[in-house]
């Protein structure tokens, strides 16, 4: 049985393979070809310490992720998410690999947003606004740059020094939040906000929002005006249990991303303002771990 640590995952996992793999995984999920419950999130200490249990079975892979979500680590130098993924053969049930899941969680989240952005954002999108400056902000910059060419990247963070560091690293502009959003074609929210930080009045008509933060049923990043846009989610069942943005706004869900990818639901017109609310689901982790495992096997046999 293989053990693949984060350094090995980093060597083996690339955006070019991951983005289409996430599209495929979400198609299978929305077509009912995945066995997967909604994540079981154990509250160890409200607002600070959580442990998630995330199993899934597909035709090609079977496994489970254990993920710790510790928002209390923010600002300490420790990651807010740590994870391990255990892979099994779906035909025999044999365990085949233990894979570090921190980087997988980071990259698969951004890769899913990139796949959705490729369908929902205008092809001529040129301005990206990133709200947040942590690992998801950096990963989204990298992933979204694979599907759209941005002439201007703006960033806002509650900590100005963090926004400045992100701006320097990615040749972006640090701005006040409203200024960063106004006129942006694509907006990313990647924070642990408890109250909405993004106001619908700031969005240009036809903007696309990828909202990946605030993963608790009583936390929000987006106000009701934002949530009145056309709403696409990764999983109806998951967001209705886990996403405060969806639960507290009472927003109507237009489609799952996998339905749009599969063509069973028509993509909204590019003139529409759209929101993709992502909470992250187990099939994304298992499919990514399988991608890494298969790449590792190829290096062994090469």
Walk me through what this model shows.
- This protein has 302 residues and is an alpha/beta fold.
- The chain folds into two domains: 122 residues, 2-Layer Sandwich (ornithine cyclodeaminase, domain 1); 174 residues, Rossmann fold (3-Layer(aba) Sandwich).
- 37% of the residues lie in helices and 24% in strands.
- An eight-stranded parallel beta sheet has the order 9-8-7-10-11-14-12-13. A six-stranded mixed beta sheet has the order 1-6-5-4-3-2.
- Strand 5 and strand 6 form a beta hairpin.
- Helix 2 packs across helix 3, helix 2 packs across helix 11 and helix 3 crosses helix 4.
- It is globular.
- It starts with a strand and ends with a helix.
Q: What gross morphology would you assign?
A: globular
**Strand pairing plus helix content: what structural class?**
alpha/beta
Rg from alpha-carbon coordinates: 18 Å
Query: How helical, in percent, are the residues?
Result: 25-40%
Mean pLDDT: 96
The major sheet is characterized as: 8 strands, parallel
Number of domains: 2
Mind telling me the CATH superfamily name of the largest domain? NAD(P)-binding Rossmann-like Domain
Low-confidence segments, ≥5 residues, pLDDT <50? Answer: none
Order of strands in the sheet with most strands = 9-8-7-10-11-14-12-13
What's the end-to-end separation, in Å?
18 Å
Number of strands: 14
CATH topology of the largest domain, anyone?
Answer: Rossmann fold
Proportion of residues in β-strands: 15-25%
Secondary-structure element order, N to C: EHHEEEEEHEHEHEHEEHEHHEHEH
Q: What is the CATH architecture assignment of the largest domain?
A: 3-Layer(aba) Sandwich
Q: What's the level 1 CATH class of the largest domain?
A: Alpha Beta
Oligomer: single chain
| Tally of helical segments | 11
């Amino acid at each position: 049985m293989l053990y693949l640590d984060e350094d090995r995952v980093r060597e083996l996992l690339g955006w070019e393979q991951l983005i289409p793999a996430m599209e495929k995984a979400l198609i299978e999920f929305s077509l009912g070809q995945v066995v997967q419950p909604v994540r079981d999130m154990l509250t160890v200490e409200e607002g600070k310490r959580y442990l998630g249990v995330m199993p899934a079975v597909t035709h090609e892979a079977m496994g489970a992720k254990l993920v710790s979500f510790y928002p209390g680590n923010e600002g300490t130098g420790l990651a807010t998410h740590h994870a391990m993924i255990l892979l099994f053969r779906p035909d025999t049930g044999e365990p085949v690999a233990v894979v570090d899941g921190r980087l997988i969680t980071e990259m698969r989240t951004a890769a899913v947003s990139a796949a959705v952005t490729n369908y929902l954002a205008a092809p001529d999108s040129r301005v990206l606004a990133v709200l947040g400056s942590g690992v998801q902000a950096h990963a989204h910059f990298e992933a979204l740059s694979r599907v759209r060419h941005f002439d201007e990247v703006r960033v806002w963070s509650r900590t100005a020094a963090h926004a400045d560091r992100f701006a320097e690293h990615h040749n972006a502009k640090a701005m006040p939040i409203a200024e960063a959003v106004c006129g942006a074609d694509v907006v990313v929210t990647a924070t642990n906000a408890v109250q909405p930080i993004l106001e619908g009045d700031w969005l240009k008509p036809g903007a696309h929002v990828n909202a990946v933060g605030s993963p608790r049923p009583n936390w929000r990043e987006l106000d009701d005006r934002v949530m009145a846009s056309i709403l696409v989610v990764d999983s109806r069942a998951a967001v209705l249990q886990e996403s405060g943005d969806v639960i507290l706004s009472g927003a109507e869900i237009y489609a799952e991303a996998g339905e749009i990818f599969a063509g069973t639901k028509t993509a909204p017109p590019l003139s529409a303002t759209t929101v993709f609310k992502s909470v992250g689901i187990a099939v994304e982790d298992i499919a990514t771990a399988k991608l890494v495992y298969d790449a590792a096997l190829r290096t062994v046999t090469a």
